[in-house]
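Example 310.
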Amino acid sequence: MAEIYDIAILGAGPAGISAAIYAARARLNTLWLDRQFAQGGQILNTYEVDNYPGLPGISGMDLGEAMGDHAAKLGIEPVRENVLSVENAEGSGSEKIIRTKKHEYRARTVILACGASHRRLNIPGEEEFSGMGVSYCATCDGAFFRDKTAVVIGGGNMALEDAIFLSRICQKVYVVHRRDEFRGDQILQDSLNTCENVEIIWDSVAVEVQGTESVTGLKIRNVKNDSESVIRTDGVFIAVGLVPNTERFQELVVLDKGGYIIAGEEGITQTPGVFAAGDIRTKKLRQVVTAVADGANAVASAQHYLMTNK
Ligand SMILES: Cc1cc2nc3c(=O)[nH]c(=O)nc-3n(C[C@H](O)[C@H](O)[C@H](O)COP(=O)(O)OP(=O)(O)OC[C@H]3O[C@@H](n4cnc5c(N)ncnc54)[C@H](O)[C@@H]3O)c2cc1C
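Predicted structure in complex with flavin-adenine dinucleotide:
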């Protein structure tokens, strides 16, 4: 008979790591899965996290590692597997079946902490040149563009952070934004304004990534007068937001219009025994500090569920 875990935590970003820490301390028989090698989820993509209390200016990589080490000290580490589906087991009460390519696991409760992924633009050339000049992670790929030209597309925090980061590496950085003002935090806008090698192109959208073996240019269109032009560039960094990783859970939980799992602060979804934590759920502020709080809350809710549904 296959082992039935008390709790399965899917994801090892801040929400999942926090959940794992709370589950380990509660001595729950826990299965923890993540598809990536390093722990930390999205924060691995940022060079600096400056708003997590107590750790000003820590790099995303260091924060992810410190969180992962904390969990490991409590004797829990994620199994490296990509979760393909989660479903209610037939005829066995509230058990859930978690499927990966290699295994089929069973757990009484599941915490979905799979976070979010980069949104794509779906323009010609984007996929073709992905990894050959097109990137979704300035921290990961910025070093390949030392003393070269890069374009950042977007106007939120992610785009501003990427542009500031790249301005320290690249000779020239363009920021292409579809509106005439940024959505990102004022502190980042102020910082960007001090970068002398950054040029902002307002009211413009990316139309096509151009290149031969790698990227050579980005065609853009001005949304006010419809004129098109090409920026000569070696790199295109796409930072136009995120999409929740809920595609695989559409049948399991109720999602809102944006694809986020409908769940409040306690992480309780409309499916008994299934909880949501972190960026994957409906909430106002998607940050590390709210994700770790969610992880803790979701475990508390799962524990309560286990006690009341024996
Ligand atoms: C560039 C950037 C900069 C940021 N800067 C800051 C900042 O300065 N301060 C701040 O507070 N927040 C910042 N954030 C936001 C912060 O990173 C997120 O709010 C936080 O990481 C959310 O944590 P999470 O655990 O919910 O999800 P995620 O961090 O997205 O982690 C989800 C995890 O689930 C795993 N996963 C997904 N699907 C599957 C699957 N099918 N099977 C197995 N595993 C799966 C992923 O591999 C990942 O490890 C930034 C985000 C980005 C992208």
